TrEMBL record:
Keywords: Transferase. It holds the Pfam family Acetyltransf_7. InterPro entries: Acyl_CoA_acyltransferase (IPR016181), GNAT_dom (IPR000182), N-acetyltransferase_domain (IPR052829). Residues 1-134 form the N-acetyltransferase domain. This is Acetyltransferase. GO terms for molecular function: acyltransferase activity, transferring groups other than amino-acyl groups. CDD domains: NAT_SF. The keyword Transferase applies. The keyword Transferase applies.
Amino acid sequence: MRIDYAVESDYPYIVENDKHLIETLIRQKINNHEIFILRDRNQEIGWMRYGYFWDHIPFMNMIWIDEEHRGQGFGEKVITYWEEIMKQKGFQRVMTSTLSSEEAQHFYRKLGYRDAGCLLLEKEPLEIIMTKHL
C-alpha cells in the first residue's frame, strides 16, 4: 500500500465516493494537498482528507477505504502517516470527530484520540469531537 497526495487524475474516484463534500471543494483540497490517496498495486483503494479547525488545528474530516480493503490496517496507516506529517509541520495536536452511532469512535480511541466534547444538531446523532497530542 502506498500513500500519496491526491492529484487531478484522482478527482473522478474521489467525486464518485465522497458524498460529504461538494464537488467544487474537492479540486481545492487536491490543490492544497489536503487529500491523501491510498493505492494498492497502483489502484485507488481509499482516501483521507483533512482541513483545519479554527484555521490552525489539523482536523481529519473523512477516511474512506473501499469495502474489499477494509479491516487490513490501511486506515491506521494513513492516519499515522498524516499525524507524522502534521508533527513535522510543527503542529502539536490534531482533531477528528465521529458520530456516536458509528464504530469509528472505538478505532480512534485505540489510536490515542481522546474525547474532547460533542456537538448536538437537531435530528442528528451526537457528534463526538476527539483530539490527540502529537
